[in-house]
Amino acid sequence: MDKEELLTKFLENIKTELNPASFTAWFNDLKIFDLKSTSITFEVPMEIHKRMLGDNYYGLISKTLSNITNIDYDIDFILKEEITENINKTVSIEENIPNNDFKTNLDPNLNFDNFVVGDTNRLAKVAAMAVAEAPGRIHNPLFIYGKSGLGKTHLMHAIGNYIVSSSNRKVLYCTCDEFMTEYTNIANPDNKNTLEYAADFKNKYRNVDVLIIDDIQYLVGAEKTQQEFFNTFNYLHQSNKQIIISSDRSPDDLKILEERLRSRFMWGLPVDIFPPDFDLRCRIIKKKIENTSLANLIKEESIEYIANACQNDVRFLEGAINRLMAYTAMIVPKVIDLEFTVEALKDFVNKNIYSNNNITKIQKAVADHYNITVDDLKGKKRNNKVAHPRQLAMYLCRIETDETFPRIGLEFGGRDHSTVIFACDKIEKELTTNAELERTIKEIKSKL
After folding, report:
1. Closest to 288 (Cα-Cα) out of 308, 306, 272, 271
2. Dihedral of alpha carbons 107, 91, 75, 71, sign
3. Pairing with 172, which of 11, 221, 391, 441 sits 20 to 30 Å away (CA)?
4. Model pTM?
């Protein structure tokens, strides 16, 4: 089936699912720009069409295409002005030769094929595929954000591996910590040739076609490193090189970063990943065990138990699977049913999941106790109804987690680390004379 025939059938089917106004607004001007065996790209007239079709109608589009072709397509949307001559041209033979000499730091095991897609991460996957197929041309920079353990790093490696396997472009992946460490080493007194080291640093991060930086939020508080990253970003962006960034919060929430950096993060496409829903968690578990000893033994009830127990973090799912595999190897059961799974994971679930007192949980517990909202704790209100609970929440975050003062400050509306230190000192001093405060803290801690 060619593009025109598919588009005609597709629009006929969509028209029966929508009221005339919705169909005319969002689908009437749709065209198929590119059609491959497992992917399809629609040309749309305006940016709002990309967002609306991707956010609100993706499921309907995917289902309709599948009904017509029996293919589950990866779907993308592109504006007419984004379709440049370079995209339409055949990539030169030289560009298609993989560059195997450059050290990318990529994990070859993280690719698009083993990234399990659901409603909570579909938009991020689509955006990542678009960047991988046309680096430097679409969504530059690509800013992926979401809580830890949701697949941001997997997607970044997948983009890099796709580009490396299909072209000779230089791709470099690094963490923000690595970038900072290498930059601060320029001024290391043991470094005998500072000028040469500085030149090597700039050459490493600027002489690339794709720069992937993980956990950019750790630039907070490092003013000189922020300046260097700002210069690196500008150099690459002006050269039409692709920049991919991840963070555990959106650009708007990175309040302590310089405004000029945050504004540049918004130039391309910020896209978020949410915690996986139950269905996606089940499919992730099945994907991760499909080539293991568990695959032929485990019952559906066991998969559902693990999915229910590990709700917010894919890493917990992996930990549960590893624990179950180890227990299975030791006991060698004939079948992995619910009873066996509960027994295998009883210590892991209690210790590593339900007792994970992170900052978000502490904020919620304090807000509930004082009958205020978490937004109040993060906001600018300074009246005592909010200020004292905020200080108490900061104190609890410090003693109940391993987070640093700067990290805690970030989670409370981008406050400076000195504000967190002041709050902790104040609560500690007050505890020496205030028995009621001590009882309040014990009550809140008991709910975590």
Report:
1. 306
2. negative
3. 221
4. 0.57
